Amino acid sequence: MKRRVVITACSAITPIGYGKNAIIDSLRQGKSGVGFLRDDGLLSKHIHSRVFGTVDYPIEYDFKRQYRKTMGPVAFYACQVAKDVLESSGLSREFITSGRLGVAFGSTHGSPTVQREIYKTFFSDLESKFSSIGAVDYLRSMVHTTAVNISRMFGITGRIIASSTACTTSSQSIGFGYETIKYGMQDAMICGGADEYDTTTVAVFDNLLACSVKYNQTPHCTPRPFDAGRDGLVVGEGGGAVLLEEYEAAKKRGAEILGEVIGFACNNNGGDLILPNLEGITATLRLALKDAEILPKDVDFVSAHATATKMGDVIEAQAIDAVYGDDPVNRPFVTGLKSYMGHTMGTCGVIETILSLYMMEQGFIAPTLNLENVDERCSMLRHTRELTETDTRIAAIQNFAFGGVNTCLLVKNGRDADL
Amino acid sequence: MTKDEFKDKILTILTEDFEFEQPGLDDNLRDDHGFDSIDAIELLGKIELILGFSFTREEKEKAMGIRTINDILDYVEGIQQSRNSQAGLSS
Questions:
Q1: CATH code for position B81
Q2: Can you tell me the distance from the alpha carbon of A305 to that of A316, in angstroms, rounded to the nearest whole number?
């Protein structure tokens, strides 16, 4: 059994805005969501990088305590975008609770904010006869907290897939959700990811000399994917969700089709856990094309992972060139969307998918921000240097993670679903 | 602390921390306010802080049978009396 899988709803909380209009506005205006690293009273003063892709606007949550009590900040993002998606989908309560709808949702490592509070008790409780570890601290911090808080809040009884593979977390969520529907295990899936404000992640990349430090006084000037002056990634926060549905059912109920997932690939480099791997990445891009049964020339737009690290961007450019470079006329536009908001970690795949859907619908491709002087080692690509009004039929969303995990999603313009 | 003083503290906790709306002393905690076993563990932690001593495992397990706010008040009163009695016996 192979069924078609379409995207019928989406929502994202990002450093460049919450909701479709705000995000499109930022993309069109070239507005960066990167700001200053906030003081966390612990790690932030030791970190060289002072920039962060920050969600600095208020979000009005309306969750009852019975749900809030098992949620850390990461689950607030997750449940909010899941709520948006379910509300806009028009799916009935009967279907949502039928067992035919599942959840594929993850985060980099649950809620570090709650984990930090737990660790504090190891020290503060030494002199106390009371334990200050809360009854729900595990539920709020565990690695699958986003997926199960979504299922709990909405009474979803289908499959739970809680991917947690760092930067490929939510692209895997979408990919695994797509496969789950394609092969008939579920009829619909809420897929995505979230990551909360967390200086632990910044500290890790900072120690690896992978964080941007040269633009601490001008945060909007970094990250700089593919630019000769790039000096590393910028960690960010946010959440995103898409609703995947089996095509015939979605069409039958009159759902708006925003896009169609036509291909997905996921592999591993089979070796180093940090260094980007040309062979592994190239294989992923080709596997996705094979899964979708399309040719490289069919892809109009590549959303590159492009974190703005020194080697990562070069290896990715080489992989894109190896797969798409044979036909100089039909090369796809390439944009590094992290230039707008930094690297939202486990969320980046779904956010970049949603941004690609918005751009496909609106008929434009946003340029890579801060791309002033293309690194000559990346110059063989068709970089999007300015806002380009153009039609995109198929977009490739590429993501790569620590651990040597690579993913590629191929998404078709929803307008063309019936063609 | 008198039973009335303790009752006021419990009502404040249930209203402010657990977001009960107009709690009644004989309301069913689960049916009327959605209070579950996780909430019970959390409330016990707060009661320990008020009383200034930790409950034993047996005392905590006994608390799982509590159904109403009046049950909570009786439960705590019983434990306090038991502790006072033990303190008297040992002195």
A1: 1.10.1200.10
A2: 8
Over residues A58-98, the pLDDT tens digits come to 999 999 999 999 999 999 999 999 999 999 999 999 999 99
Separation between Cα atoms, residue A248 and residue A259, nearest integer Å: 14
Single-letter amino acid, residue A13: I
What range does the domain containing A410 cover?
A: 5-416
Task: Judge whether B42 is closer than 8 Å to chain A, CB to CB.
Answer: yes
B41, A138 contact by CB (below 8 A): no
The answer to whether residue B19 neighbours chain A at the CB level (below 8 Å) is: yes
Going by the DSSP 8-state scheme, the letter that residue B63 receives in this structure is H
A355 neighbors A23 (Cβ within 8 angstroms): yes
Residue A122 has pLDDT above 50, yes or no: yes
Name every residue whose Cβ is closer than 8 Å to that of residue A186 and which is 6 or more positions away in sequence: A100, A101, A102, A158, A159, A177, A180
The answer, for B56 touching chain A at a CB cutoff of 8 Å, is no
In a domain, B30, yes or no: yes
For A189-245, the pLDDT digits (tens) are 999 999 999 999 999 999 999 999 999 999 999 999 999 999 999 999 999 999 999
Q: Which chain B residues contact residue A69 at CB under 8 A? A: 38-39, 42
Per DSSP, the residues of A355-384 read HHHHHHHHTEEPPPTT-SSB-GGGTTSEE-
Residues of B in contact with A134 (CB under 8 A): 42, 45
| Residue A126: pLDDT over 80 | no
How many whole angstroms separate alpha carbon A243 and alpha carbon A245?
Answer: 7
Is residue B57 less than 8 Å (CB to CB) from chain A?
no
Q: Is the ipTM of this complex over 0.85?
A: no
Residues contacting A271, CB < 8 A, separation 6+: A277, A404
How confident is the model over A371-394, as pLDDT tens digits? 999 999 999 999 999 999 999 999
CATH number, position A384: 3.40.47.10
